[in-house]
């Protein structure tokens, strides 16, 4: 039997960034900005350090470790994924990139949200500031040697941090093309 539901969606709540929708038996959230897309930025400094950000996330009531990320089109609806990714990278980490490449786009939590995420590889990094996010954010930047990144993340789990599961995909994408072949 098909799980497809052709009932019209009914908005039960709408805020600045999200709305809650009911469609038949499904309840889910949608992003309200242009495209409903976010970008996660995979960035390695010239010193071969992976950039991670730490911040308190209200829904989890916990500090998290993530790769830099942000909404696409929340500032300018016509902004490309690549430009949004570089802007978020600078804002959150204090690093900018000469080049940003979209590797893939897919759903973040297909059973709970219509949001999609773009994995973006940022290269040609240069430090331009301190990072830390905008006035509404309290971000700590971590620059971890790539060879130690996985072990550092496991240690953060042991310390009680919540880790974004997309971190592991991002680490893999540093060194691989999507077909699994090594980047060279």
From TrEMBL:
One GO BP on record is:
ribose phosphate metabolic process
**Keywords assigned by UniProt, alphabetized:** Hydrolase
Q: Which InterPro entries match?
A: NUDIX_hydrolase-like_dom_sf, NUDIX_hydrolase_dom
Q: Select a single GO molecular function from the record's annotations and give it.
A: hydrolase activity
Record has Hydrolase as a keyword: yes
PROSITE patterns from the UniProt entry: NUDIX
Annotated Nudix hydrolase domain residues: 34-175
- Would you tell me the protein name for this molecule? DNA mismatch repair protein MutT
- Its source organism is Stenotrophomonas chelatiphaga
